[in-house]
Amino acid sequence: MLKPIRKAIIPAAGLGVRFLPATKSQPKEMLPIVDKPTIQFIVEEAVASGIEDILIITGRNKRAIEDHFDKSLELEMILSERGKDDLLKLVQDIGTMVDIHYVRQKEPLGLGHAIYCARKFIGDEPFAVLLGDDVVRSEKPCLKQMIEVYEEYRYSVLAVQEVPPEDTYKYGILKASQLEDKIYRVHDLVEKPKVEEAPSNLAVMGRYIISLRIFDFLAKTKPGAGGEIQLTDALRSLVSCEAIYGLAFEGKRYDVGDKLGYLKATVEFALEREDLGAEFKEYLKELL
Fold it and tell me: Could you tell me which residues come within 8 angstroms of residue 204 by beta carbon, excluding any fewer than 6 positions away?
């Protein structure tokens, strides 16, 4: 019987060096897109996809993440006393949307190592991974699209998109064959290949549904690109013994771990806000 995808991992232990000095004392995952921390977008996508339990992999100086998803008794009391019921509900909903657990990655040894830290939480079932640097806007949540593919094909699924050939060095790249519209059978993966060595321009985009067997391979994976234990290297081993599929998902992906990507997300999300969009659009017209 196919086990459902109920658990998700959100790795959030990175140092955020691309956003220094802002991330010197606060997690990059707490940088807001307008007024919502980026990690909350990721959690909301998981919840909208049917995830019941989330494990956030944290590191030192990441306490703000736990505080954000916890109750804030003093703030709630003040909002209640002042009759700000809409804001009170907004704050309370953050802490009750899903069961969130935490484990600390004690050393920055890479994404593969971060996932390995979650093995006891995952237990004996397949699971999802959502990277905090990738925010996806879509009518149907990206992870939900992937779960539907998993339920049909019954094996691991990677979210993929085509990237310009000159950008393949930034991503995990697939060697794959197309099975049907938007669905690929993965034959191999390469982490951040040189442009001339990339097997395609199909890049993994921060969303994974992974077989439990990945932990066997993560335990044996040696440091790879960047001197870190790469999830891509463990997936290469996994694909040698069982199927992995790629889904070219529907939606727009923002790389909010990149300054320009973060700014694009902030502008586009602000323009869609009922309370900000019209006035902000007029301001941008005047500015340009």
Answer: 158, 159, 160, 171, 172, 173, 174, 189, 232, 246
CATH number of the CATH domain containing 220: 3.90.550.10
In a domain, 2, yes or no: no
Residue ranges making up the domain that contains 270:
258-288
| CA dist., res. 114 & res. 103, Å (int) | 9
Euclidean distance between CA atoms 216 and 40, whole angstroms: 31
Distance CA 39, CA 43 (A): 6
Q: 180 with 282, same domain?
A: no
pLDDT tens for the chain, 288 residues long, are 788 999 999 999 888 889 999 998 899 999 999 999 999 999 999 999 999 999 999 988 889 999 999 999 999 999 999 999 999 999 999 989 999 999 999 888 889 999 999 999 999 999 999 998 999 999 999 999 999 999 999 999 999 999 998 999 988 899 999 999 999 999 999 888 888 889 999 999 999 999 999 999 999 888 776 778 889 899 999 999 999 999 999 999 999 999 999 999 999 999 999 999 999 999 999 998
- Enter the tokens of residue 55: 């494990």
Same domain, 241 and 111: yes
* Domain total of the chain: 2
Q: Are 22 and 132 in a shared domain?
A: yes
